[in-house]
């Protein structure tokens, strides 16, 4: 399959070594899931970049707050090898018509980036015209999905 212009696009490489993974979060994102995912990416040699649709500190499910590295509107999906989206159910409902998020997800999909999602994100994916198919996987399947680039599918 053709490669996208992602930072690390060695087809067949299952490692996260030198991979850049964008993690989209919003108010209410499950704190433990975020901590676990970031730790997994770092331990595997990758880089996790926390991206949010809002400016400033984002309050997580445990009431702690995190300052994202970038705001969604000022960050291109082309800078990443994959996207993980960790939204709570409330966050998914709130962002289901967020044009910046929908556009960002569509661009990631069109660039054949693996997209890992938390269960509540199905609503947002549907609004973006993306259905769970090859390359659109649950968060736990994301590391394996990095080994391939996916064909662009019709919306």
Automatic annotation (TrEMBL):
GO terms for biological process: hydrogen peroxide catabolic process; response to oxidative stress. Its EC number is 1.11.1.6. Its cofactor is heme. InterPro entries: Catalase_clade2 (IPR024712), Class_I_gatase-like (IPR029062). One of its GO terms (molecular function) is catalase activity. Keywords: Heme, Hydrogen peroxide, Iron, Metal-binding, Oxidoreductase, Peroxidase. This is catalase. It comes from Asticcacaulis benevestitus DSM 16100 = ATCC BAA-896. One of its GO terms (cellular component) is cytosol.
């Amino acid at each position: 399959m053709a490669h996208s212009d992602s930072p690390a696009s060695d087809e067949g490489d299952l490692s996260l070594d030198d991979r850049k993974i964008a993690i989209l979060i919003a108010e209410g994102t499950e704190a433990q899931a975020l901590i676990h995912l970031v730790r997994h990416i770092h331990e595997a040699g990758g880089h996790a970049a926390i991206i949010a649709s809002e400016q400033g500190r984002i309050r997580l499910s445990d009431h702690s707050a995190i300052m994202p590295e970038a705001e969604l509107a000022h960050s291109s999906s082309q800078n990443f090898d994959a996207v993980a989206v960790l939204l709570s159910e409330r966050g998914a409902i709130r962002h289901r018509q967020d044009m910046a998020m929908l556009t960002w997800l569509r661009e990631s999909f069109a660039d054949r980036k693996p997209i890992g999602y938390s269960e509540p994100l199905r609503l947002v994916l549907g609004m973006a015209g993306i259905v769970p198919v090859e390359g659109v996987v649950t968060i736990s399947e994301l590391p394996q999905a990095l080994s391939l680039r996916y064909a662009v599918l019709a919306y």
